[in-house]
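Proteins fold reproducibly. Look at a concrete instance:
___
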Amino acid sequence: MIKLSRIKVFVINLDRSTQRLAAIQAQLAPTQLEWQRVPAVDGRAIDVSSLPEVDEATYRRWQGKPLNPGQVGCYLSHIAVMRKFLESDSDFALVLEDDASLPPDFVPLLQRLLELGKLWDVVKLSRIHSGIPVTLAKLTGSYRLAVPLGRHCNSNSLLLNRRAAQTLCERLLPMRLPYDHAIERSWLYGLRLRVVSPAPCLAETGQASTIAENKSDKFVFYKRIHTLLYRSRTELLRVVYGMLHVTRFWLFGN
């Protein structure tokens, strides 16, 4: 059995969000997992448009909407967490945003995921969209480890190994997309992106979002042509890359 001591747990939390910190702390207490708070970058407190870490023009073209300061803060916070993880001697990192919701059977699930660590580099534990999962292995209870053939989105609960953290730190800057969109482009990074299905950690927890966007912010249709082209290409690449991984697993078991 792989020891849970090999995993480093990080909680991303804005300094002003004390109630959120208390809520995630209460959820983590029964797990007996040691965790570290990482102060989140407050995108609304800085001039994000002048940051060299942000490619605003590409963001607007690919997203079809103005740059969201909250999304910038979220993105840079995750980069900071991965750098802290790489400074440690841990093999795996569990990265939680402070609105994450952990199920009662979280520890056995986590243990099983670590036992299957040779099958993944990144595992997403929360979702907004179904992701069209194709099962690779059974986990605990009704959970399955799967390859997503569709958009998954949301990043409040992620499991990473060191290879993924190193690669993403090198490849994700400058920011051109929201973080949860960027990490799903695994074909660019050569990473084995997996999801747990059904998602054990809720994306919608009832807490007010600190990075919420207004749908009315979207550009008018004729200004979103580049967005539609980008998304069409992305979905095609996602399916092709995902099916390559599924086929490889069926043939070789890895």
Q: What stands out?
A: The mean pLDDT is 94. The first strand starts at residue 7 and ends at 13. The chain has one domain: 4-252.
